[in-house]
Specification:
The protein is of the alpha+beta class and 71 residues long. It has 1 helix and 6 strands; from the N terminus they run E-E-E-E-E-E-H. The strands form 3 sheets. Strands 1-2 form a two-stranded antiparallel sheet. The protein has a two-stranded antiparallel sheet with strand order 3-4. A two-stranded antiparallel ribbon has the order 5-6. 15% of the residues are buried. The N terminus is likely disordered.
Length: 71
């Protein structure tokens, strides 16, 4: 059985409420705000609505603030 970290490249995920689905295996995703690589086992912040990952709570807040400015 292959785990989420078996492939070394960038993963593609579908973000859901409380979990995510691996669409393309990889070792990391990139923060939508900072561009920082986030190991899948460390990924804790994402937006289901925007379908994008965040490195930390500050990046998540920045994305939400950015979204509010556009609306």
């Amino acid at each position: 059985m292959m785990n989420r970290m078996d492939s070394g490249g960038e993963a593609k995920l579908r973000y859901g409420d409380g979990d995510f689905e691996v669409l393309r295996p990889g070792a990391f995703v990139r923060c939508a705000v900072t561009g920082e690589a986030i190991a899948l086992d460390l990924l804790k912040y994402w937006s289901v609505e925007r379908q994008e990952p965040y490195a930390d709570a500050a990046a998540s807040l920045a994305a939400a603030t950015r979204e509010g400015e556009r609306g």
